[in-house]
Amino acid sequence: MSQYGLLIDYEYCTGCHSCEVSCKNEKKLGRGVYGIKLAEIGPFEITPGNWEWNYIPSPTKLCDLCADRIEKGEKPACVLHCLGLAMDYGPVEELAKKMAAKGKKMVMFVP
Amino acid sequence: MEKEWKKQQPDGTITVRTCGWSPPGDHPVGCGMKLHIKDGKLVKVEGDPEHPISQGRLCVRCLTLPEYVHHPQRIIYPMKRVGKRGEDKWQRISWDEAMDIICDKIRHYTDNYGAESIIVFGGTGREACLYYYPLAFSSIGTPNCCYPLSGWSCYGPRCSITDYILGAGYPEIDFAGYYPDRYDNPNYKLPEYIVIWGKNPLMSNPDGFYGHSIIDMMKRGTKIICVDPRIHWLGTRAEHVLQLRPGTDTALALGLLNVIINEDLYDHEFVEKWTYGFEELKERVQEYPPEKVAEITWVPKEQIIEVARIIGTAKPCPIQWGLAVDENPNGVQLGHAILALIAITGNLDVPGGITIGPPAALMGKWRMETRSQLPDELWAKRIGAEEWPALSTAMATTHPDETLDTLETGKPYKLRMGWFNSTNFISATCSAQPDRWYRALQSLEFNVVQDTFMTPTAMAFADIFLPLPTFAEHDGVVLTHFGRNAIFMGAMNKAFEVGECKSDIEVCIELGKRLHPEHWPWDTAEEFFNDQLKPEFGFDFNDLREKGVFQPPYEYKKYEKGLLRFDGEPGFNTVTGMVELCSTLFEAWGEDPLPYYQEPHYSPYSTPELFKEYPFILTTGARAFTSFHSEHRQVPSLREITPDPIVEINPEAAEKLGIKDGDWVYLENMFGKCKQKVKLTKTINPKVVHASHGWWYPEKPAEEPSLFGVWESNINTLIPHKHIGKLGFGAPFKCLICKVYKAED
């Protein structure tokens, strides 16, 4: 059986926190405990007018890629609710192809 | 979408599909979601993948709805004040008792002082925006319905400018929302560029525009240009950010027009056939060459020219105008100039350009017509209507600034009763100088507040508190842009009940049946909606529930087809029948018929002496994902993400003042002061600071003088009263001056 992972297109992660909160809802997590948590890099200016400012959600060891939801034929909670539609779930081989096809600002997690 | 909207799950949970609106506050975005109810409680909210616009996506405000709905501080029964105003002493009463008390008071004031002595205040965004008009005109019978924000500085100016210049419903980017198959529809064309002007749609979901559609379009290849004093996240993904000095937008728009017209980059056919006053506009923009505009706006000349060339040549290139158009005394001219840019570049009502609604709002008939239920002599008493015809012709409200004057002076008559419908405007939201409003409102003898929580405004003024249900607890219809450009319409479905709450329309009906039964033939909200829907669309409320979402068909180039005018002739619904680049109505009202730039009332150039004492330009009101204006501060999961009011300062400026990231500082100017927490960021100019609005502290003491800490971080105390444009629109919420110093307490 394939290994599954989470693909994040951080060109389009807008930092909305929907992954964090929907994950807490799904896993019934208390305050200060996360199944996925947003990290912020930047904003800083590399050259005039050229800014780097990225949000990247990182899954924690509490993430089981929403096994229960997958079993019911649903998407993981974070993938469904992501406002930027910047998250994807699937076998790592498929996700790796998508990363390569886009060619920039992609990261894959295998929690 | 699936026909079945309510489902029983094997574990006993009930799942109800709905399209969200309010409360809690938001614009009519109508995001699709599934509400999971167990044992009468909302246990989980999930996005609905079938919804054509939101497609399963959902923001944190809806995801945390259970915390809001079942919050221990929520008010879920009608309450009567039993202490003095400002004391937290209340008694639960029945709806019958509440209605008896209210109706007695309304009859008393109407009989003794005239119905105009009663005033309805409405807030922004929530469903109340539809229902506070009939509440005033049809249920109570007063001509005075007030949106208290100085210069009506939110949405109203843009709608009015559009009425006068285009004679159409609200102009919005074409994001293929009309089509079930969205961006793939063969009638649709992807924008080559989108100009986002004074707006951050990702966070604000403005008036029904689904903000992250911008991201959808960017992924398909659309490029972005931002016009903003701040470089926000979207700005870092944009081709250009025109980072202008706050309040100088109109100069920039005129500079862009200058380049586009002088370099002959405009759409000659459209200009010749469908515009009025092009030669006059051409002459006017000669006063705004790029060098001069660069000096005024601090945007480099080369960038102005480059962006003007893009706007003139990219096809399509819609411009999405934001709140910055409204919150500016020079905003009518800005809106006019932006509409001129859209029109002369051929981006009006074309695929992928700017869509416009027909001049009559969808389902707006009933809402607008309730005005005519008032006798003419009573309607003529509407506060400020005579003095401000440009405002009172397009808007059915009082003039907001005149209303404060009336409260303070008792002229032309004394206001005696207030009804606050979904508005908490002594917090930093819908008013300038809220401290002054607070003092003036003390003169009202009897007040009703409709809300979900005991807000600072309710604590200060309510004599009777009527609890509103959230959108999960009542039936309703959500339509984008309040029907002014209805991209879609969705059914809001009641999934369960909390306490004894009644929705806006239910209160309108109940009160109306007691006071003016001739206007209120309906017994339930459903009957009411059936009567609104059936004649216009041929289906009733239950059909809409089963559809989930209804996307009315859209026609482009309506001006060619006679679809914009009531007489069925081609053209626009304006005085000249054309897009008025030179406005006949503005001229008739004593304003310049052409757009012009006016320096902000307070700035380094207009008040250089004051600027020495207050050396920062202050801009306010940017939005966050975690709140809708003054709402959501009591929701623990949202407060964890955004705990404090943030003021953004450039590190270079902060260093000179000995201010560090995370410090609490005072912002102060000639009008007021407030305390916020510093976030250092290079995304803002060292001469500019940006402060957050809407802050109060539900965790702080409720009673006077604290009122939940409403005065501590209240940025609107720094905004002056009645510094508005000549036509009565626009106040300087985004272009003032202030000083900043470390808070030692």
Structural summary, described in words:
The complex is a heterodimer of chains A (111) and B (745). With 111 residues, chain A is an alpha+beta fold. Chain A has a single domain, classed as Alpha-Beta Plaits. Chain A has a 3-stranded antiparallel β-sheet with strand order 4-1-5. In chain A, β2 and β3 form a beta hairpin. Chain A is globular. Chain B is α/β, with parallel strands linked by helices. Chain B is built from 27 helices and 28 strands. The termini of chain B are far apart. The interface between A and B is medium-sized, with 32 and 36 residues.
Biggest sheet record of chain A = 3 strands, antiparallel
Element order of chain A: H for helix, E for strand: EHEEHHEHE
Tally of domains of chain B: 3
CATH architecture classification of chain A:
2-Layer Sandwich
Features:
heterodimer, A: 111 residues, alpha+beta, Alpha-Beta Plaits, three-stranded antiparallel β-sheet, 5 strands, globular, B: 745 residues, alpha/beta, Rossmann fold, Dimethylsulfoxide Reductase, domain 2, Barwin-like endoglucanases, 3 domains, six-stranded mixed beta barrel
